[in-house]
Amino acid sequence: MAARGGFSSRIGFIAAAAGSAVGLGNIWQFPYVAGQNGGAAFLLIYVFWIFLIGFPIMLGEITLGRSAQANPYGAYKKYGGKVWGLVGLFGILSGVMILSFYNVVSGWAFGYFLETAFGNLLEEENFSTFFGDYVADFSDNLWFSFGFMAITAVIVLQGVKKGIEGSAKILMPALFVILIGIIIYGLMLPGAMEGVKFYLLPDFSLINGATIYSALGQAFFSLSLGMGGLITYGSYLSKKENIVSSATLVAIADTLVAFLAGLMIFPLVFSQGQSPSEGPGLVFVALPGIFQAMGPILGKVIGSSFFLLLCFAALTSTISLLEVAVAYFIDERKWPRRKAVLVMAFLIFLIGIPSMLGYGAVQSLTSFTFYEGTPKSFMDLIQDLFSVVALPLGGFLLSLFIATRWTTAKFSEEISHGTTNYKGSFLEGFLNIMIKFVCPVVLGFMFVLTVLQKFLNVELF
Ligand code: PHE
């Protein structure tokens, strides 16, 4: 069998894993979900989930992948047999479905880049109407999301080292710089402090079941957990590398970017008198107004750089999503990489079409179903099923798998390769307890709570 691809260095892995984590989830989704769920109270619970549950699960995925040297299905099957293999398959399916809508939103970001740089976006009067018309326009969206998937496919075709690693290293720092720039600008605007208060001063009366499970789903989505993405990337990692410190850096970078995205958006939203609970259009409606206020030239430069970097952030995530399905077909079905990439990319693009049509273009997909007291679009449903529900469920199954089949002894042993002094450390004891008891219990409970409350209208608290 040909040797599996691999990252060339520790920095390569960190860049690729952070590239996967940092994306639309941080800059587009985090602010709007936080805006709909009480702002600061949400932020607090989000950070709690990231470090308490997200971090151990992240280590679980990376170690399982590195130890098994396989895609999610192969990894579960290797240590747990065919039935556990189904858990890996379920993760791969979640990745496919997530990519289907993620690619549509990436297409919006790409369109906004073009509209800002070469079109008339910054001369518009009402950005909310513009956004509504924009996402309802089927042909533009079709081309942009097709284009975005094509670029993703070209990079994934190049394999692990050249394509995935190379692209992530330069783009992450650039994104960081532009976020900080817009934050400073935004904080100086009149009314900005109201936004800061909304985002940083928690009102605990706003915490309810929905805040708690939305923050959990958001944490899993943002860290790219629960669907085997990090099992796959872990399988390309060498035994010499320190998994604990790599994962810590990835978790911190991801949380920091989400935090900064919120700090960027809420002052802008409040200073322009918009509503923080606007939903998926939040970033696309709040930012152009500010770019417009910067004046025609500066606005165009900053605005188009921002949307371009947003596209790059999205791209390093779409790459990781596509790679999971591709790795499965290469490992298990012995497809050549080329075939796996082309077939899966095209298929996932097609699966995304109903999501694309559900933003006004087709009424029956826009009001596709009804729960949580409101009509939901097709894309809302896919987002809820495959990220809010499926990812924490994937985390639950992973921790259950380590606790009952693979064993925490093996988990611990695998981490110790490359992490000196891990055996016998406080961290080892802590992580073993988290994976063995806390994660399965908490995530199992959260799964039940989410399904009951979201879809069956039963409020536990
Ligand atoms: N973490 C990515 C983001 O925040 C999305 C993603 C989810 C990527 C799951 C891979 C797997 O945008």
What would you say this structure looks like, in words?
The protein has 461 residues and is mainly α. It has one domain (10-350): Hydantoin permease. It contains 19 helices and two strands. The protein has helices at 10-21, 24-36, 40-68, 72-117, 127-136, 138-157, 160-187, 192-200, 209-222, 229-234, 243-271, 282-293, 296-333, 337-351, 353-357, 363-366, 378-406, 408-416, 426-455; strands at 369-371, 374-376. A two-stranded antiparallel sheet has the order 1-2. A hairpin with a 2-residue loop joins strand 1 (369-371) and strand 2 (374-376). Helix 4 (72-117) packs across helix 14. The chain is globular. The mean pLDDT is 93. It binds phenylalanine. Phenylalanine (PHE) binds at residues 20-21, 23-26, 98, 221-222, 224, 227, 229, 317, 320-321. Phenylalanine binds at residues 20-21, 23-26, 98, 221-222, 224, 227, 229, 317, 320-321. This is Neurotransmitter:Na+ symporter, NSS family.
Which geometry do the CA atoms define?
A: globular
Lateral strand order in the biggest sheet: 1-2
Could you tell me the CATH topology label: Hydantoin permease
Number of helices: 19
- Helix fraction, binned, reads over 70%
The CATH architecture designation is: Orthogonal Bundle
Task: Please write the string of helix (H) and strand (E) elements.
Answer: HHHHHHHHHHHHHHHHEEHHH
Say which CATH homologous superfamily is assigned: Hydantoin permease
Portion of residues in beta strands equals under 5%
